[in-house]
Amino acid sequence: TWNRGIQLAVFIIMNATLIPKYGFMGAVYTALITSILIVVLGAWRSRKLVSLFNKSFAVALVKLILSAVVMGGVIVWLKDNYSFFYIIPLGAAVYTLMLLILRIYGKEDWEWFKSLRHTE
To answer: Rounded to a whole number, what is the distance in angstroms from the first to the last CA of the chain?
Structure first.
């Protein structure tokens, strides 16, 4: 609740400050910053409750961030030459490919995914 209260206060202050100066982009920046804020606050608080943040978690997080950066780079590189109707699916494919290359998926994930075909 405290984290959400902090996020709400920052959201209101940032919107009041940025929207008059930057218009709708101010709202976009506010949404981005406050989304990051709630993740950071949640991670900070949850580390006191759950011992999730270990080396394997950090490695997986770095791999996910790297995959997102590569996907974003491809999208930025192609955005001026192609319609977003092509770029969005391509971005999703690049992200998925990066997850496969970096071996984000474990054996349990693949077994679960394969089991989806056999459900009735």
So the answer is: 40
